[in-house]
Amino acid sequence: MVSQGAAGRGARTVRAEVALKTVAADSRSPERTRRVLEQALVFAGASFVAVYTPDDDRERLLRLVESAGVPRTVYGLRESYPRDGHSPAAEAYRARRPVWLGPEDLADGADARRMASRDVHLAALPVSDGTGGCLLAVSESPDGFGPEERDCLELVAGAVACPARAAVEQGEELRGTAFALAMDTGRVEVGDAILDLFGLTREEFDGRVETLLGLTVPEDLPSLMSVVEADHMTIGERELEFRVLQPTGPPRWLRLRGRLLPGGEGRPARLVGTVADASSPRSGITDVARVQRLAATLATAGPVRDVSPAVVAALRVPLRADRIALAELENGRLVVPVLDPPEAEAWPELWQTEWRTEWPDAPVRAMPTPAAALREGRAQIWPAGTALEPALAEVGPGGLAVLPLPAGGRMAGACLIGWDTPHDFGPDERTLLTASAGLVGQALTRAHAFDAEHELVGMLQRQLLPRRLPQLPGAVAVARYLPATAGLEVGGDWYDVIPLPDNQVALVIGDVQGHSTAAATLMGQMRTALRAYAAEGHPPDVVVSHANRLLLELETDLFATCAYVQVDMEAGTAWCVRAGHPPPVLRYPDGSTDIAETEGGPPLGVLTQAEFPMTPLRLQPGTVVALTTDGLVETAQCDIDTGLRRLAHALAVSDPSHLGLVADALLANAPRSDDVALLLMRYDGMAVRPLREGWTVWRVPEAARHARRFTRRTLLAWGVRPDVMDPALLVVSELVTNALVHTDGRVRLDLTLINHRLRIAVTDSSPRTPVKPTSLGWEATGGRGILLVEAMAESWGTVPVSGGKQVWCELQLDG
Question: Which InterPro entries does this entry report, sorted A to Z (predicted)?
Fold first, then answer.
């Protein structure tokens, strides 16, 4: 979630244009196209966006080359579309104009039955990078793509540079472990490191892929060819391990990672990727090594989406299986979230016609074979020719393995592995299947717990961050939040803008250690505590000290960093307190910047007797105050000092008149290894400063009369006409009398006038809030004061202050 703060919605298109220019400027980045597409998710409200480009003229297809957002299969989108067909992508490609479709239009389409969600809007736009491709976007918003969202999509379509024109396609020299294979001729360009792995010199290699394939172990050649042949490759990276023969000793294990890039404009389709040495963790016993590798991979897998490809890579490819399905057991039903290959045509038609979704979601009793395996808790292997139920007969006509997935004393699901040609199940392979099943079951259980925690943390993050920033007197503030792209993706970064009495404003930014439910929960507690302490009227150092004491009393193992800046909007001054957090960066009206040299204390929750010194800041009208968390300015490759200097430079070259655009530009190329929170405030100064006077009320019998006299003299000095003073004098009399009668200690009267609006505030040392009576009898001798104040004033209320309270009201003086 990216909080838009006070930025206006009408500027979204301009913000998108700035963000796209920033992202597109990094033309050499391999992630450039994906980052461009991600802008459609942010600014156009799309839930999925993809780029399709034409392949060679023989097949005349539009092929998917890059995507972002939720999986395309949710919306029934295909990996390729015929250029001469009636799909939205083909129509946009041929006509070179946008196509906008709503739910009613999509319901009549050929892919309607493939869609898990029907109430969506789809857009297809031609891209303008010369490839003749098109952009496809989907929105789940009930209103679809409005005028502003359409403008943003057209900007994205104009900024896309298709990956098919990447460095390898442009003929740049290959180095190291990279390769590029032309699919039509079989000519392959390889780096020197690959030749070393195959035991060849540059002079010995003739550039033919057959030369390299001839050096592989014959048993591994079929699985290697399944990746090398274009007809078997789908968009996205594929991984395969294979062996090459050595002059002496056992074969060497290599790992190939490849990606198919479609051709076009006279260029053939290419398979590009890397080949690396994979022999170091492999033992002499192949199946034991496979289990070790699967265990290592699943140990680091987080969500369910990470477990699935690990299982496919560890089982289907080494076993040379034709298909693999992962079925989870949920409330007596088998839900199949993972199928490889993913194409519907590779699986039984019954799976698509008799159950409610494209893939099975059926009662366990509907498939007796998996039901028996789950009941008995051991792997079931069915050789070729075995009579199976119709739902499974086409999964493994040459052999079928059904592996129950145990986890924590129960069955998490089943894994189905099928072969088209007769397969011989050896004893070692049966052991491999049984060992792998236990690892997969445990990994699935951990992954579901991970996903559940992720959802909870995401919900906490959305609920605990401010929904919008307040309007400030004499200033504009915007904020942004970017989650990390790894781990739980959300954590303890937060920001806040707290309006205070007398045109004071507190800017807060902080970071709780870690990415977890505990971190998100603690973030909400710290944000609430700081807001409460600030509202009580404490100075900044006391506010931060109280928060430190609270965190220590919570007895958590986590700590937090924080920067707290309290700004006086009338005087243009500020006090800054830091608790282990990066300092503010100031941009002055002349474009110069300064990393504020502020004293800092330790992080919150570390030391009981910590000191948090205050540092003064001077703000000229036009000064921008930037507060950020370390995720923006510190990475493994960049220390925090360098990151702060880069932030200062980016602020210096920005245009502060559009603060929202500045925030978007600062985050456009932000590292995503950690959460990032950013809070910007431009101090403009108050056009009209209020008039203020205060007086300490004497505890004498005629105190109310003295307070009225002070009020009259003050209002006359401010130019208020005598004939409009009566309501103010009555309110002052009632509030002062209540404070003297019902409290002890010091009582103070403060008057503030701005734009003919008078604020009257009476402060006393009692924390008890005055209570408005619900009813008054004729014989009652008190209780009418608050009713009179409520009747005369436009608004009134109470706020806590240090050691007491303040009762205030506001009146409009027409004079």
Answer: Bact_Sigma-Reg, GAF, GAF-like_dom_sf, HATPase_C_sf, HATPase_dom, PAC, PAS, PAS-assoc_C
**How far is the C-alpha of 488 from the C-alpha of 550, rounded, in Å?**
26
Amino acid at 61: L
The whole-angstrom separation of Cα 62 and Cα 140 is: 24
Model confidence, pTM:
0.47
* Host H or E run for residue 418: strand 410-419
Other beta carbons less than 10 A from residue 250's beta carbon: 11
Report the DSSP pairing between strands 804-812 and 795-801.
antiparallel
Specify the pLDDT at position 235.
43
Residue predicted with more confidence, 47 or 313: 47
When computed from its CA atoms, the radius of gyration of the chain, rounded to whole angstroms, is 34
The C-alpha atoms of residue 395 and residue 417 are separated, in whole angstroms, by 8
Q: How far apart are CA 637 and CA 634, in angstroms?
A: 8
Paired tokens of 177: 């472990």
Give the three-state DSSP class for 419.
strand
- Give the other-Cβ count within 10 Å of 747's Cβ: 24
Question: Exposed, middle or buried, 85 (CB in 10 Å: 0-12/13-18/19+)?
Answer: middle
Contact criterion met (CB below 8 Å) for 503 and 707: no
57 Cβ contact partners less than 8 Å away, ≥ 6 residues apart:
none
Phi, psi of 423 (to 5 degrees): -120, 135
Q: Which residues contact 221 (CB under 8 A, 6 or more apart)?
A: 213
- Nearest Cα neighbor of 278 from 426, 177, 350, 364 is 177
Give, for 768, the enclosing helix (H) or strand (E).
Answer: none
Distance (Å, whole) CA 682 – CA 660: 11
Q: Tokens 């969600």 correspond to what residue?
A: 117
Reference 117, options 58, 70, 158; nearest CA is 70
What 3-state DSSP class applies to 403? strand
- Give percent helix, percent strand, percent coil of the chain, each to the nearest 5: 35, 25, 40
**DSSP β-bridge partners for residue 762:** 749, 807
Q: What is the DSSP letter of 314?
A: I
Mean pLDDT across 680-691: 88
Alpha-carbon distance of 327 to 342, in angstroms, equals 14
Average pLDDT, the chain: 79
The pLDDT tens digits of the residues spanning 475-495 come to: 999 999 887 655 445 567 889
Cβ within 8 Å of residue 735, ≥6 positions away: 749, 760, 762, 785, 789, 807, 809
User: Is 239 within 8 Å of 218 (Cβ atoms)?
Assistant: no
Report d(CA 613, CA 578) in Å as an integer.
8
The SS3 of residue 701 is coil
13 phi/psi in degrees, rounded to 5: -65, -40
Q: Where are the beta strands (DSSP E) in 296-341?
A: 323-330, 333-340
Contact 729/681 with Cβ under 8 angstroms? Answer: no
Query: Beta-carbon neighbour count of residue 539 at 10 Å?
Result: 14
Residues in the chain, total: 815
**Helix or strand run (H / E) with residue 117:** none
Tens of pLDDT, residue by residue over 735-782, are 999 898 888 888 999 999 988 889 999 999 888 878 776 665 555 555
Of 753, 748, 759, nearest in space to 805 by CA: 748
Phi, psi (degrees; rounded to nearest 5) at 69: 105, -155
Q: Stretch 657-670: mean pLDDT, rounded?
A: 88
pLDDT at 617: 93
Report phi then psi at 791, rounded to 5.
-70, -35
Which among 631, 492, 495, 461 is positioned nearest to 559, based on CA atoms? 492
Beta strands in 331-409 (DSSP E): 333-340, 361-363, 380-383, 399-407
356: pLDDT strictly greater than 70: no
CA atoms lying within 13 Å on the CB side of residue 553? 9
| Cα–Cα distances in angstroms (integers) from residue 166 to residues 73, 262, 276, 377, 752, in the given order | 26, 11, 21, 49, 65
